Amino acid sequence: MNPLSQLPSVDRLLSSAALASLSDVHGRAVVADTIRDVLAATRTAVKDGGTLPNESALLEKVGAGVTAKMRPKLRPVFNLTGTVLHTNLGRAPLPEEAVQALVAAARSPCALEYDIESGGRGDRDNVVDELLCELTGAEAATVVNNNAAAVFLLLNTLAQKKQVIVSRGELIEIGGAFRVPDIMSRAGAKLVEVGTTNRTHLKDFAESINPRTAMLMKVHASNYAIHGFTHAVPEAELAALAHQHDLPFVIDLGSGTLVDLAAYGLPHEPTPREAIAAGADLVTFSGDKLLGGPQAGLLVGRKDLIAKIKKNPLKRALRVGKLTLAALEAVLALYRDPDRLHLRVTAVRQLTRPETDIAAQAARLLPALRTTLAALPVTAEIVALKSQIGSGSLPVNRLPSAGFAIRPQGRKSGVLNRIEAALRALPKPVIGRIEDGALLLDLRCLQPQEEGEFAASLAVLDIRA
Ligand SMILES: *Cc1c(COP(=O)(O)O)cnc(C)c1O
After folding, report:
1. Atom of ligand 1 nearest to the CA of 287
2. Which one of 106, 280, 301, 381 is separated from 464 by 20 to 30 angstroms, measured CA to CA?
3. DSSP letters along 181-221, please?
């Protein structure tokens, strides 16, 4: 007899009590589809000589299949990589105030382009432009999808078919295929490189200005540094030269923190306020890097130039949605209280978290980790680590941190990969890094309210042989 004739039907499995609650949660269609997939796979396996699974084994496969299919792809994870603003993990986690604002804007209609005072039409930039001007000293501001879009829109508006003069030392690539020369050509602007990789002087710029010049531009090369025999022209001098020729001077700041992070012991990053004060006519920066907000590109500067940019039809294509604006407004509002910034803006809090605090957390969690790993040929220790700021900030600027190093005993290094895979397979995956023969879990970004959840995850870790 053909063993496949013993296979239960789709209807029979679908009406099984074991799948009733899955059907309730996810709907019958998903469960029925998964049953068909499991039956098809079983037929193939049996034809290839496999044994026919019994009905409860089939039901278990269907259950696992439905759960896997319905699990969201964009799942929260524990970022224990040691890189705070990790682009692949969504950069800055939002402060609770921003999360609340975002949820409220998502749930009901909101005054996105509506002026509540007059009852007339509004402009979505009005949600944040006053705050941005207040925090940067600029005359006007606008917001687009990300900083790459901000730079693109700026160039396309002010330099199409014209020349943009940039120092050769600033023609940088940022991770994820943002290259200044590529953005420039796609925006329709002609790049004029001046100076050399290590040294650029004011006269290099002055000699390149001609009637086709649209602007002088500076790109803040945050992700690399050249040392030794170097020279870059100070912003104020470039601004003065541009203004002598009636040209705008623009700066792509990249990270663009709104406060001087040196006050918290972090490396100094130029702020938009400093750039404006030095004479920049337009400054662009990211919303989700050091600022600690949602993905966005912020443009601040001269009123007439911002007005031109807003009239470009591409602004409509690059605009942000209400969720972004709600979160951005809430984060910017926190900057009005600089004294408590390091407590309230999550990214700033994580970047400034003292090493002693992180080490104390590691000490609290070590027993749970050791219990989990007890049966494996590994050791787990608390170690001093160096976290990175991430998102194009200097890789040499490392923050003293603490965490766990899991090392194989003897030469069985495959065990580390198994632990790493098991951590990633958790309902809320734990993302660490393997470095120099150790699995490292940097606890800098483990938030206090996540500590219990993390410990509970360790307790259910399922490490496959
Ligand atoms: C990060 C960065 C960008 C790109 O910003 P996104 O917000 O990621 O689009 C552009 N320029 C500089 C200098 C940067 O550091």
Report:
1. 7
2. 381
3. HHHHHHTTPEEEEES-SSB--HHHHHHH--TTEEEEEEE--
The per-residue pLDDT for range 157-198, each reduced to its tens digit, is 999 999 999 999 888 777 667 788 899 999 999 999 999 888
Residue 129 and residue 14 in one domain: no
Q: Are residues 396 and 294 in the same domain?
A: no
Same structural domain, 242 and 147: yes
Residue 278 within any structural domain of the chain: yes
- Convert the pLDDT of each residue in 367-402 to its tens digit: 999 999 999 999 999 999 999 998 876 666 789 999
DSSP state of 46: H
Same domain, yes or no: 214 and 356: no
What's the chain's length in residues? Answer: 465
30 part of a folded domain: yes
- pTM (whole model) above 0.90: yes
Find the domain containing 64 and state its range: 3-70
Residues 35 and 110 in one domain: no
Q: Based on C-alpha coordinates, what's the Rg of the chain?
A: 27
Which residue owns the Cα nearest ligand 1 atom 3? 254
Q: Are 216 and 242 in a shared domain?
A: yes
148 CA to centre of ligand 1 in angstroms: 6
Domain presence at residue 465: no
Ligand 1 pocket mutation, candidates 286, 318, 320, 389, criterion most atoms within 8 A of CB: 286
* CA separation for the pair 221, 437 (Å, rounded): 33
Q: Considering only CA atoms, which of 456, 435, 432, 458 is closest in space to residue 445?
A: 432
For the chain, what is the domain count? 3
Q: Whose CA is nearest to atom 1 of ligand 1?
A: 254
| Judgement on whether residues 215 and 323 belong to the same structural domain of the protein | yes
Distance from the CA of 285 to the center of ligand 1, in angstroms?
7
Type of residue found at 48: D
Q: What is the CATH number of the domain that holds 250?
A: 3.40.640.10
